[in-house]
Design goal:
The structure holds 2 protein chains of 2 kinds.
Chain A lengths: L15 H39 L9 H10 L1 H35 L1 H16 L2 H11 L3 H25 L4 H9 L4 H40 L7 H10 L3 H30 L12
Helix pairs in contact in A: 2-10, 3-4, 3-6, 3-8, 3-9, 5-6, 5-8, 6-8, 8-9, 8-10, 9-10
Chain B lengths: L12 E12 L3 E12 L3 E5 L6 H8 L7 E6 L8 E4 L11 H10 L9 H10 L15 H13 L5 E5 L7 H18 L3 E5 L2 H7 L2 E6 L4 E7 L8 H4 L2 H19 L4
Parallel strand pairs in B: 3-7, 3-8, 5-6, 6-7
Antiparallel strand pairs in B: 1-2, 1-4, 8-9
Helix pairs in contact in B: 2-4, 3-4, 6-8
The chains are: A mainly alpha, B alpha/beta.
Chain lengths: ~290, ~260
């Protein structure tokens, strides 16, 4: 009995259909990377031509090369701003993970807790953060704490909701088995519920990563005029007031790239943690 | 190391079910008046149509549900590790390796992997999977997963192993092979088994006692003894004795399905 068949024997002749399928798979692999780059190149070209052919002034719509050169020339200002936004984003994500997972564990350990507090978590989630943020900045003295609170409010719910679902999704036969073997509540949580919840948690984390950036940016918008002047969102606002549209675009591009990098990083972590056992991370032919 | 069981009638009692009824939601009678004495080395099959309370009986023995009436008592009292269970599905933890899955019953009793490593390897060797201890469940076939599940159930050398239609979802060839392997295992470690099945042939091949149950309400209508010596093999499977026992069990099952209490 063996898991892997012996593949050392001479490979049989491959028929035309199989060769065609292999070629199709190869093109698909290449296309996955080439096509988005091609679309980006075409869009930049169209943008550039639109600006040049119509003679649009840079304070209305700058061309892509002007945006790129502004990104280089304003890099010291923009990079400092990026670090501030990134700091708020990552701190909010960390607190969202701690708060979301902590509350989810509490909810699954105590039905009463879940019944008492879950509705309020939903209310916090469905109320737009732009509506809550001004209130937060009235009552919270520290601006950093206010920004963090806003970003956390947006980011924690996907972690809470997904982790709660995951903790409750452990296989019922395994639950029975743990009971038969006399597992304590802590053992059941550690050896059964938390591993079962991991794929759900990581799904929530990927959403929360993007949302914490959105939360940080929105909070900076609300707080920006009140004195915090160093985040990317504030730089966009400031550039708007000065009609420095190229810098607005440059800051916007940095925010988008940051979001993509956060998503890719979290996807990578998720893949590394699940690659050995979870369906979502396993590669199958066909 | 062979651990041949004592002859029927001379075996020490392990567990006793006395007058157990189980009623769900106040009026659904799942089991009525179940009496069963399980002795050391018994291989008992619970045979019956769907809804006759076979799985309910197992869940009662496993203390996952409680009897409405009657009682279940263990000779000398029940201790942690007295019970091993194999479900219809392999029920393995997909995030854990084969060895980690078999370690589970020990782990929940606070034992480190290294302190019970020899027992885990031995259990895997007995089911023919010692070379796959570092594999993940997804890498195994259905039959191999079920072997891991059996290894996990017996690794603590429990006094009683409950098996709830463990081979029902497997193909015929794998089921035959696992039936043979299960009996070989029983001979080696001398375990006591209660085995739930729909299959007349499987119950006759494996058991020395067959408890035939009828539905609505779930109850025992007949107990048959299969007085054929172990080890049993393909010779027994094709013998006239086997055919005669199958006929008896089949008749009893028909009786159960017609709802005629004996």
């Amino acid at each position: 009995m063996s898991i892997v068949e012996d593949n050392t024997a001479a490979a049989p002749d491959v028929d035309e259909d199989e060769l065609r399928r292999r070629r199709a798979r190869k093109f698909e692999r290449i296309g996955k990377w080439v096509l988005p780059v091609l679309v980006m190149a075409l869009a930049l070209f169209a943008w550039d031509r639109l600006v040049v052919w119509n003679g649009i002034p840079h304070y209305i719509l700058p061309g892509p090369w002007l945006v790129f050169s502004t990104l280089i020339s304003d890099w010291p200002i923009l990079f400092d701003a990026l670090l501030v936004t990134l700091q708020i984003t990552l701190m909010a994500l960390a607190v969202a993970v701690i708060g979301g997972v902590g509350l989810a564990v509490l909810f699954t350990q105590s039905r009463w807790m879940e019944m008492s507090f879950y509705p309020y978590a939903v209310i916090l989630q469905v109320t737009p953060v732009v509506a809550i943020a001004p209130l937060i900045f009235i009552y919270v003295d520290s601006r950093i704490a206010g920004l963090l609170l806003c970003a956390w409010l947006v980011a924690f719910f996907p972690v809470l909701s997904n982790t709660t679902l995951g903790l409750n999704s452990a296989d019922h036969n395994l639950r029975d088995l743990f009971r038969i073997y006399g597992a304590t509540r802590w053992q059941r949580l550690r050896y059964l519920q938390l591993p079962s919840a991991l794929p759900y948690f990581l799904g929530g984390l990927r959403i929360a990563g993007g949302l914490s950036l959105i939360g940080a940016v929105v909070a900076e918008y609300v707080a920006g005029t009140g004195g915090i002047g160093s985040g990317l969102a504030f730089r966009i606002l400031e550039a708007g007031y000065r009609l420095n549209i190229p810098r607005m675009f440059a800051a916007l591009i940095l925010i988008a790239v940051t979001g993509v990098v956060i998503f890719a990083g979290l996807s990578f972590i998720s893949h590394m943690l699940l690659r050995k056992w979870h369906e979502s991370a396993l590669k199958r032919e066909g | 190391m062979a651990a041949t069981s004592a002859p029927l009638g001379q075996r020490a009692e392990v567990m006793r079910i006395e007058g157990v009824d189980k009623v769900f939601n106040g009026d659904v009678v799942a089991l009525k008046g179940l009496n069963l004495t399980v002795n050391s080395g018994d291989f008992i099959s619970l045979l019956g149509p769907s809804g006759c309370g076979k799985s309910t009986a197992l869940r009662l023995i496993a203390d996952l549900i409680h009897p409405t009436r009657g009682r279940i008592t263990w000779a000398g009292g029940q201790k942690a590790g007295d019970l091993g269970v194999v479900f219809q599905e392999p029920t393995l933890m997909p995030w854990a390796t084969v060895a980690q899955n078999v370690w589970l019953p020990f782990r929940l009793r606070g034992k480190t992997y290294n302190s019970v490593k020899d027992e885990i390897i031995e259990a895997l060797r007995l089911v023919g999977l010692d070379k796959f201890q570092n594999a993940y469940p997804r890498e195994l076939s259905g039959g191999m997963k079920m072997r891991v599940s059996i290894a996990r159930a017996m690794v603590t050398k429990p006094r009683l192993i409950l098996m709830d239609e463990p081979f029902a979802a497997l193909d015929e060839i794998t089921r035959f092979r696992l039936n043979n392997d299960l009996l070989a295992l029983k001979e080696k470690i001398g375990c006591t088994v209660i085995f739930v099945t729909h299959s007349v042939f499987e119950s006759v091949f494996l058991s020395d006692r067959i408890v035939v149950m009828a539905a609505r309400p779930g109850r025992v209508i007949r107990e048959l003894t299969v007085d054929a010596p172990y080890p049993r093999d393909e010779v027994f499977r094709t013998s006239s004795d086997y055919a005669a026992y199958c006929r008896q069990a089949s008749d009893a099952l028909h009786e159960a399905m017609e709802g005629v209490a004996a």
